[in-house]
């Protein structure tokens, strides 16, 4: 028996080392797809563009023209007098930036062209579009970026890029439909008239996902010696952490017992499956050396809300999410 035990120990060590190396996840970069807006609003109102909705779709083929598919910008007030370069604001880009991602860059594609004389005594030159961004629903705007000089047929102008933050400070929530805005203002000589054709505007966001970590319920069940830095005790009750567990008759179990809960067909069984992951999640979130995707407060609030719903689909959905987080990485040593 003694020889067997001596044999097993180095083998287990090798298996643990292998699993640690396989499960470790590096931080990784990603981007949204290039997204068009769904909504628009007049920026300044003295002399707004005509047909602003035509810049929602980038649908004029590069190298051609089709005025009916473009918003028309102007600088000269038709009523006479003012030279006003009016703006249009585009939003509802539905940019899928993961919560908590670090923003690396923003790319804006402006498609359009110019009309008007390009030669002779009335030739006009220097027509451009300027783009501004907002991550707070238009309360503040970045410095602008300009296209190169527009040509007489449709072209796409890429502003910013994968490492360009437009001198702004951004979080993932800056890109929600409620917050993100793109403003377009024509640029060029004054008294130019109506010669800016904006075919479409599109946005792509580049980001990096953090190197999140999480340990499994099995780890926490077998390593109660690692619990003290979390501030939680194996013997404290479920109800002391997840108040809604009491309504399901589960509040009196200890956190350690909950890590051993099994499944089954009833609502209470499904709640037990959630609580297995919930206890591991709260320990991961509370441990100072584990970079968990959620805070303790978020875990507790989400678990209580799911339990209170008494809805099996809701409970199992959160169970699945936490199970994923709790298996992010074993490359952590509490
Ligand atoms: Ca186009
Ligand atoms: Ca268009």
Description:
- The protein has two domains: 29-209, Sandwich (Jelly Rolls); 212-326, no CATH class.
- 24% of the residues lie in helices and 19% in strands.
- It is built from six helices and ten strands; from the N terminus they run αββββββββββααααα.
- The protein has helices at 2-23, 217-222, 255-258, 267-286, 296-309, 312-326; strands at residues 28-31, 39-42, 71-73, 88-91, 102-114, 128-134, 145-146, 155-160, 181-187, 196-209.
- The strands form two sheets. Strands 1, 3, 5, 8 and 10 form a five-stranded antiparallel beta sheet that branches.
- One calcium ion (CA) is lined by residues 54-55, 57-60, 69-70, 199-200.
Features:
single chain; about 325 residues; alpha+beta; Jelly Rolls; five-stranded antiparallel beta sheet; 10 strands; about 25% helix; elongated; disordered N terminus
Most strands sheet: 5 strands, antiparallel
- Main structural class: alpha+beta
* Parts with pLDDT < 50 across at least 5 consecutive residues: 1-26
* Distinct ligand kinds: calcium ion
Enter the CATH topology name of the largest domain: Jelly Rolls
Which helices and strands, and how do they pair?
Blueprint: H1 2-23, E1 28-31, E2 39-42, E3 71-73, E4 88-91, E5 102-114, E6 128-134, E7 145-146, E8 155-160, E9 181-187, E10 196-209, H2 217-222, H3 255-258, H4 267-286, H5 296-309, H6 312-326
Antiparallel strand pairs: 1-10, 2-4, 3-10, 4-9, 5-8, 5-10, 6-7, 6-9
Helix pairs in contact: 4-5, 4-6, 5-6
The protein binds calcium ion (2 copies).
